[in-house]
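Work Package 3 (structural annotation) set out to generate three-dimensional models for the target panel prioritized at the project kickoff. During this period the team completed the workflow that converts sequence records into discrete structure tokens, so that structures can be stored uniformly alongside our sequence database. As a representative example, we reproduce one entry of 183 residues exactly as it appears in the project archive.
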Amino acid sequence: MSDEVLTEEFEVLESIYPEELNRISDRELSLIVEPEEPVYGLSDFKITLRVSYPPEYPDVYPEVALEPIEESEREEDELTAEENERLLKSLEEIGNENIGMAMTFTLVSHLREQLTVVLLERAERIKRAETEKERRAIEVRPSASSSHFNNVTPSGRRGKDSGNTSNNRIVFEMEDCVLGGTS
């Protein structure tokens, strides 16, 4: 029964994933998998799902591995060890729920959904890290109290009889603006 089920399953998978599927042998395939939904900044993310079917399949869970795409040169295009482990555990849970049935399509669909979740979490971590970096950069900048405008004071005048009342008014207006007063 196993060979018939597997042959039929391979035919169905080849029709659904003609470009993504690579049949390695009669009992092994690899499939390029993308997230179900694109994630901003991580939309080119893809991984390879490698599935090896034991003779007892579909009555046992197949051997499953997640591998980076060979063309990938960027570190962010690969799963972390934690992400990889989490996805494999999730796939095994779904696979065990489908024992006795052809399950590869179900595994691929579930992996696509979970990849979206993982990448959304990754995007959120990146966003939080960038926000924290910006917050720290703001803290390092000189505060408003050390701004050069605060150093402009009426004492910068040349004296009461300098006759330059226009400049005195500008100095007072700048000081009011910095200190929050009104002119």
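The beta strands are 21-25, 28-33, 47-52, 63-68.
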